[in-house]
Amino acid sequence: MRHICVASADPEALAPFIAALAQAGCAVDCLPTAAATASAVREKSPDLCVVDGDLPDSGALALVAGLLEIDARVTSVVVSPLSDEAFHDAGEGLGILMRLPPAPGPAEAARLLAALEAIS
């Protein structure tokens, strides 16, 4: 069973995506702040962190950088409205697996799990 942390101040907006991950057999923890996410990574070393850009205490890319300092093995994806090219430029060097569009759903969950499987 994969353990996935979802860092979002509004997990309801991600509900279809989160439900699809859970239906695929993943254990999903929703965390409302960057601080809570960092603490969870220290304690549980999840397989994946999904970072939404709406956190009250950090930007998404800053959180990913912070998570790498805690555990360089943590794989991250970021929910972002940027184009793939602009996102690549902004997140270069952070080892982010992929960008998810705002309000991802079941199709994005399936694509994410396939990408995660490919690197495992």
Rg from alpha-carbon coordinates: 13 Å
* Global outline: globular
- CATH level-four homologous superfamily name: Response regulator
Largest sheet: 5 strands, parallel
Number of helices: 5
Oligomer: single chain
Please tell me the total number of domains: 1
Distance between the termini: 13 Å
The succession of helices and strands, N to C, reads EHEHEHEHEH
Q: What percent strand?
A: 15-25%
Strand order of the largest sheet: 2-1-3-4-5
Mean pLDDT: 96
CATH topology: Rossmann fold
Name of the top-level CATH class: Alpha Beta
Q: Tell me what the CATH architecture is.
A: 3-Layer(aba) Sandwich
> What helical percentage do the residues reach?
40-55%
Count of distinct strands: 5
The helix-and-strand class reads alpha/beta
Question: Which stretches are low in confidence, meaning pLDDT under 50 for 5 or more residues running?
Answer: none
Distinctive features:
120 residues, alpha/beta, Rossmann fold, 5 strands, 44% helix
Provide structural commentary.
- This protein is α/β, with parallel strands linked by helices.
- The protein has a single domain (3-119), classed as Response regulator (Rossmann fold, 3-Layer(aba) Sandwich), CATH 3.40.50.
- The chain contains 5 helices and 5 strands, in the order βαβαβαβαβα.
- The chain has a 5-stranded parallel beta sheet, with helices on both faces.
- Strand 4 (75-79), helix 4 (84-91) and strand 5 form a beta-alpha-beta unit.
- Helix 2 runs parallel beside helix 3.
- The mean pLDDT is 96.
- It comes from Solidesulfovibrio magneticus str. Maddingley MBC34.
- This is Response regulatory domain-containing protein.
- InterPro entries: CheY-like_superfamily.
